[in-house]
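step: validate -> pass
step: tokenize input -> pass
step: predict -> running
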Amino acid sequence: RFRDAMGSRAAAVVMYMLCSSTMLVSNKLAISLFPAQNLLLLVQLASSAAILWILGKWGQLQVDSLDVKKVGAYWMVAGVFLLNIYTNMMALKNTTVETVIVFRSLTTVLVAVFDWRGPPLTG
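step: predict -> pass
step: emit ->
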């Protein structure tokens, strides 16, 4: 049972790495071919939302309805996530894929260090 769990975790990590690197290269290609990067980002986000909505309507995926309380509670998280995607897109526009990968990896390490050594953000 332990071996099966480790195997499925390893497969998930490999699939994540494959998906992430493929999306970085695909976005670099899209940015270089499509001059309006903000519009490209909007189209990508809208198509993702539409696909999730359709899968929810078809019963293939459980999708919560849009609730004002949830929006109020999570708007800042969504905003920071959008800012993260936007800065990655602009970094891809102005530098190489390898540089973006290095800085994304360093960001994860820095967050881990601050989580381990830093003071808590809330009281």
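step: describe -> The helical segments are 2-33, 37-57, 68-94, 97-117.
step: cleanup -> pass
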